[in-house]
Amino acid sequence: MNNYFGIGIDADLCLDFHNAREENPNKFNSRLHNKGVYVKMGLRKMVGRKMVKELHKELRLEVDGKVVELPPVEGIIILNILSWGSGANPWGPEKEDQFSKPNHWDGMLEVVGVTGVVHLGQIQSGLRSAMRIAQGGHIKIHLHSDIPVQVDGEPWVQSPGDVVVLKSALK
């Protein structure tokens, strides 16, 4: 992972987009059109199947060796930088909470959650931030079932097992 790792709803949308582009590459020739396709796919997810509706029940998250209780989310994003999804900042502005101010050289990764497609759209448009979940240098995710994941925009369906994401910078 260079920039971010997504699991759940954002990866599911990314996978749908990837598959559509693979089937008809000539239709995906402009950024504006591509964003429109993402919106259309997001709207379909809102009314259609919910592959990752209760993601918090389908995995166990450990950060620096400690199990982290997850709120009800449909997606988790692990950030190595604060820019995600064409420039959005899911971590959001600085605020008073138990988390350190993130930067790309501190050796820490930020873990955030999203509640669904609408929340993703609000993050993209700058109306809302994601839910801050954790910060740490060693993140382990135990998957109980097949779940869509993506690394820096490259999606696939991950089988049950452990996914480990490690810090990339030195303190």
Structure report:
The protein is of the alpha+beta class. It has one domain: Tumour Suppressor Smad4 (Sandwich). It is 26% helix and 30% strand. The protein has helices at residues 9-23, 31-47, 55-58, 117-124; strands spanning 4-8, 59-63, 66-68, 75-79, 109-114, 131-136, 138-143, 147-151, 154-158, 161-166. The strands form two sheets. A six-stranded antiparallel β-sheet has the order 6-5-4-1-8-9. A hairpin with a 2-residue loop joins β8 (147-151) and β9. The longest helix is centred in the first third of the chain and has 17 residues, at 31-47. The protein is globular, with a radius of gyration of 16 Å. The two termini are 18 Å apart. GO terms for molecular function: ATP binding; ATP-dependent diacylglycerol kinase activity; zinc ion binding. It holds the Pfam family DAGK_acc. InterPro entries: DGK (IPR037607), Diacylglycerol_kin_accessory (IPR000756), NAD/diacylglycerol_kinase_sf (IPR016064). One of its GO terms (biological process) is phospholipase C-activating G protein-coupled receptor signaling pathway. Residues 1-155 form the Diacylglycerol kinase accessory domain.
CATH level-1 class:
Mainly Beta
Determine the CATH topology: Tumour Suppressor Smad4
Alpha-beta classification? alpha+beta
How would a textbook summarize the main sheet?
Answer: 6 strands, antiparallel
GO biological process, one term: phospholipase C-activating G protein-coupled receptor signaling pathway
Protein name: Diacylglycerol kinase accessory domain-containing protein
Pfam family, one: DAGK_acc
Keywords: ATP-binding, Kinase, Metal-binding, Nucleotide-binding, Transferase, Zinc, Zinc-finger
